[in-house]
From TrEMBL:
Name by which UniProt lists this protein: FAD-binding oxidoreductase
A Pfam family recorded for this sequence: DAO
GO molecular function: D-amino-acid dehydrogenase activity
InterPro entries: FAD-dep_OxRdtase (IPR006076), FAD/NAD-bd_sf (IPR036188)
Coiled coil: none
Family: Belongs to the DadA oxidoreductase family.
Length: 431
């Protein structure tokens, strides 16, 4: 069952024109809409299903710098600042708490990995530090796990995915943005080699600039235009518990479970060491490009071939603007939670912190992530399509950076000085 997203009043009608059209009402597209609206630039967000119905409400809510590739840390640092100011900016508590994140290591090899990451970010002045096993016990007491140690970043944190995107959407609307749900964008409308609008299932909307923030659908959207974006789907299952006392505020990621406290007093939990990889044609087509980064994690993937393969094959890869597009056929991507994996996560966690044995499982769900070969998103212009900017491929960690990513996409689209150096996110790094 999908997490219930805080509702947002949206517009029934598709405007005939605007300045910036945004494809996708996930947290990245909505943040970009807020930034544009705050700057007084007319903007319309078009969402094929429900706002935040896909990754943006299903994620775990971790906001972290720790464990990111060095190139991605500056964006995460800017995002921290923006998260800290978000409640005041949107007038609502979205559950942002800078309560710290800890990763645990069972073996010396895992400790070496954490040490290696810490070395790689030495010049970035982060507050991350290695922990001994007694220090782990002090920070998160009552555990029975045997740890080689851990790594801890006090300034990392969390927020509530079911609240954040909605609060941003409401604020964007107050600033003048228009949001239309149940309105799939089929393709771009071009004139003289320049983007001039969006062709939607409800007709055409003229605009000067387009931001494609379509999450895992951006690859298919661009593929129809003959542009390659390498992203592969991986499915993460999660559960939430009923309220539980005594486990504190720090979010903890062990090799085979993770937990973080929720605003409702429960915890969001996942089997951190396992993701489902239901094979699609794309895995066979571009999977080899992932080998360098996936080599260490391949054991964590539960690879299977089944219904997903056939369903994906049946969705068009090329279509005409007059035809019903794949985006109308799948309004909300809603994979089933892997019951075995969430049970495994809970078992592993209860062994390490028996207090969790007192918590009832209130709900489980899954979400499909859009993973690039280097796990960095693409944020920047699509040079083959003047007027089109892309912000997608957040690789399972885009909730944390979304506030900065949306702002960066707007800076690039409007030609302003970028909020951070955008070179690591260029699309042409894949060509
Ligand atoms: C289970 C899970 C756990 C995760 N945990 C974390 C975490 O703890 N921390 C973290 O930082 N990140 C996490 N992530 C990743 C994070 O959720 C994503 O990176 C982030 O939400 C991406 O936001 P988005 O706006 O790019 O994409 P999405 O939220 O997927 O939004 C894209 C939207 O575009 C719409 N769309 C697509 N094509 C069209 C079209 N043609 N017309 C109209 N609409 C269209 C879709 O319907 C969708 O609503 C997790 C993800 C999952 C699935």
């Amino acid at each position: 069952m999908a997490p219930v997203v805080s509702p947002v009043p949206t517009s029934e009608d598709l405007p005939s024109s605007t300045v910036v059209g945004i494809i996708g009402g996930g947290i990245v597209g909505l943040t970009a809409a807020l930034v544009l609206a705050e700057r007084g630039i007319p903007v319309v967000v078009l969402e094929k299903g429900r706002l935040a119905g896909e990754q943006s409400s299903r994620n775990l809510g971790w906001i972290r710098k720790m464990g990111r590739s060095v190139a991605d840390v500056p964006l995460a640092c800017v995002a921290d600042r923006l998260w800290a100011g978000l409640a005041a900016r949107v007038g609502e508590d979205v559950g942002y708490r800078q309560a710290g994140i800890m990763y645990l290591a069972r073996t010396q090899a895992e400790m070496d990995m954490h040490r290696g990451w810490l070395d790689s970010v030495r010049d970035l002045s982060l507050d991350s530090r290695l922990l001994t096993a007694p220090q782990v016990d002090m920070l998160v007491p009552h555990g029975q796990g045997t740890w080689a140690g851990g790594i801890y970043t006090p300034s990392d944190g969390r927020a509530e995915p079911t609240r954040a995107a909605s609060a941003i959407a409401r604020a964007a609307t107050r600033h003048g943005a228009i949001i239309v749900e149940q309105c799939a964008v089929r393709t771009l409308s071009m004139e003289g080699g320049q983007v001039k609008g969006l062709v939607t299932e409800r007709g055409e909307m003229r605009c000067e600039q387009v931001l494609l923030a379509g999450g895992l659908w951006s690859r298919r959207f661009l593929g129809n235009l003959g542009i390659g974006l390498p992203t592969l789907p991986l499915v993460c299952s999660a559960l939430r518990t009923s309220p539980l006392d005594g486990m504190g505020e720090i979010a903890v990621g062990a090799p085979d479970f993770s937990f973080r406290k929720r605003l409702d007093g429960g915890y969001t939990i996942t089997q951190r060491g396992a993701l489902d990889a239901p094979l699609t044609l794309d895995h066979l087509r571009i999977g080899m490009r992932y080998l360098p980064t996936l080599r260490q994690q391949i054991g964590n993937l539960r690879i299977g071939i089944g219904r997903e393969f056939v369903e994906d094959l049946m969705l068009a890869r090329r279509w005409d603007k007059a035809a019903v597009s794949p985006f109308e056929r799948v309004r909300v991507k809603d994979p089933a939670a892997n019951a075995a994996l969430v049970a495994e996560a809970m078992d592993n966690l209860v062994r390490a912190w028996p207090t969790f044995g007192n918590a009832a499982v209130a709900q489980s769900w899954a979400g499909t992530m859009d993973i690039t070969p280097d796990s960095l998103p693409v944020i920047g212009a699509v040079t083959k399509m003047p007027g089109l900017t892309l912000a997608s491929g957040f690789s399972g960690h885009g909730f944390g950076t979304s506030l900065a990513a949306g702002a960066l996409a707007v800076d690039l689209l409007t030609g302003q000085a970028p909020i951070v150096e955008a070179t690591p996110y260029r699309l042409d790094r894949f060509t």
